[in-house]
Amino acid sequence: MPDFEVHFEEFLHLAGLTHDKALIAWGGFYFRRGDSPYGEWRIVDDQELAAVASVPRTESIGAGSEPFGSATVEVEVGGRVVARAHTDEHNHAWLTGLEPDTEYRYRVLVDGRPWGDGELHDWSVEQRTLVRAGGRYDSRFRTLPATDAADPVTFAVLGDYGVGIVDGRLDGARQLLIARALERAVDRHGVRLVLTTGDNIYLGHEDTAGTGNEDDDWYSSFHQPYRYVLNRVPFFPTVGNHDAGDSESSDDRDQLIDNLFLEHRFRPGVEAGSASLGPGLFYRFQVGAHLEFVCIDTSIATGMDVEHYFDDPAHRRWVEESLGRDGPLWQVPFCHHPPFCAGPEHTNTTGMVERLVPLFENAGVRLVLSGHEHNFQYAVVDDVHYVVSGASGKLRTEPPRDFEQAHTRAWAPAGHFLLGRADERGIVLHALADIDEDGTPVPIEPVDPAGRPADARIEIGSVGGR
Hints:
Layout: E1 6-17, E2 22-36, E3 39-43, H1 49-52, E4 71-77, E5 80-87, E6 92-95, E7 103-110, E8 113-114, E9 121-124, E10 129-132, E11 140-142, E12 153-158, H2 170-189, E13 193-196, H3 215-223, H4 227-230, E14 235-236, H5 253-259, H6 262-266, H7 268-272, E15 275-277, E16 281-287, E17 291-295, H8 313-324, E18 330-334, H9 350-355, H10 357-363, E19 367-370, E20 376-381, E21 384-389, H11 403-406, E22 408-412, E23 417-422, E24 427-435, E25 441-443, E26 457-460
Parallel strand pairs: 12-13, 13-14, 17-18, 19-21
Antiparallel strand pairs: 1-2, 2-3, 2-6, 4-5, 4-7, 7-8, 7-11, 9-10, 12-23, 15-16, 16-17, 20-21, 20-22, 23-24, 24-25, 24-26
Helix pairs in contact: 8-10
């Protein structure tokens, strides 16, 4: 064992959720006291785990992490255990046989000891170290509604958020502010799930070459900022250029697969037709009777004979079949790159405009969500509403230039997330800078291309039957 002080911080993760099952995971991060430029404690790099862990270890969190012990997961309702799973081989387990739209509590026992119990240590941006600040897990979740239940669904959208909060940068402070607002939205507005529009992880703060391919990179960017959401609400990601090898020295897809349990969640859907994987991330899932989300991988298909992953014949066929089938009233594609974008850094994605937009229009899609540009943008093209939401961490304040070609109706240089609600009458989206402690939403302040005030609320009704 090391001759310096080591702290292990335990985490819980509701890694997957449907109307009748939940994927519950556990793990954590090692810290050592001493030689950190960021404070009293510093996170232990994956390459150093052998020096601090009591047993050989290469990972400390995620689907591939070595087991921490003999584990039992119990799910209860009304004080009665209704589902139980045991594993000696993994740090995750599926709990099955659950009822739709039902709130459950859960606990994880590792070698008989409750995991993540009691007051926790969280990262203080101000003090740049771990502190006790009263944080405790509220380990409960609510299963998604059944696919025949005509209930309204509230969801959130985060884009380009993976900048990290440890090193005190302005982008990290913005990410933390929005993360805390998201937590309040879960508490006050009943958010059932979080969609991401990509760039879930940027470069690690110690690695200027650009990477997010180790667990320790994910502490600052994902697990700590959203800690008290991740144990209660599932995240459904799409892949951004910083998650892939488009813009960095390493392709972080393997780590995305590992930390977000993508194979465990979506591989079974390949045979069923609800997913198309490897290489590329394409899946769809229904929430209630009226709403279905469709994840489309728009990243560059490096090493393949096509431009984007959606151009691959198998993926292309899956997208066509998914959008062409009779489905729920609201079918909402979400992706990283925007088909229509006014800038200032990025413009329209030509391949999407040419090859995906016609599919959206033919399928009667009314809403497409994306990120990539680090601001808020809203456009309408042929009755399809396109929302760019790429400023949940990073922010680009320069004004866009290409309003006309992007068909822009509103934009804002503001950190934000989206709060959405869908029912049989329509979808309403709010672009929010914050949510007050009492639950009151704080909207951003968009303007139209002429600089006149615009609405941060987007209301979408059906056209032509869908």
